[in-house]
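Lecture 7 notes: from sequence to structure.
We start with the chain below.
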Amino acid sequence: MNMTTAFELYPAVDIRDGRAVRLTQGRADAATEYDDPIDAALRFAATGTRWLHVVDLDAAFTGEPRNRHLIERIVEATGCDVQASGGIRTLDDIRAALGFGAARVVVGTMALTDPTFVPAALEIAGDRLAVGLDAQGETLRARGWTEDAGDLFEVLGRLDALGVARFIFTDIETDGMLSGPNLAMLTRVADATGAAVTASGGVSSIADLTTLATLHTRVDGAIVGRALYSGDVDLADALAAVASVQR
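Predicted structure tokens for the same chain:
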């Protein structure tokens, strides 16, 4: 593929009740607790990763941004570009995330349920705004994956027309399962938009990441969570592997 852009890895730090956790298929009752989120972020940063994907799970499930202070500390402590996600449901939430140094802000629920939200958000964040498309099959899920939020491709078409620069596609069936990403659906999503697409869900090996790196010209990054914490993927080796891929 004739591309000059690097394929980026986004090590995930999901925060609930002040701890780094990983959920299985987005279920709050299926969490594995790991360690202090600042320590996790610093370990990832020490490998040379440029990006971190940091999620406030409490905000995603309740709408209350209980862990914003920890995300701000991660920005300050690591020096990485931080993609802030989870429960960002107001324009003030976007301003706050950008204000404490997030390089990109991910909106989900409001982008899917309120047609007026994304145009207003783009006025504030521009290409630093990403929209999360979390889908079970072709049905989008919102509010911490607890509610249906429409047809994936209908919503994608609407948001693409507004000029969203990046979509983060999560296949809920594979998220946290270490079963491999849903390559077929990722390809369909990338074919349906002119924006960049970040893959999320199911990564279980470095081989999965190198496959994603050559899957589609618009799939230019992947979020990696459970596989890093479980040891199935070594981040330093993964960064080296995707850097060697010819796109």
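Points to note: Confidence is low (pLDDT under 50) at residues 25-31. Residues 7 and 213 are 6 Å apart (CA to CA).
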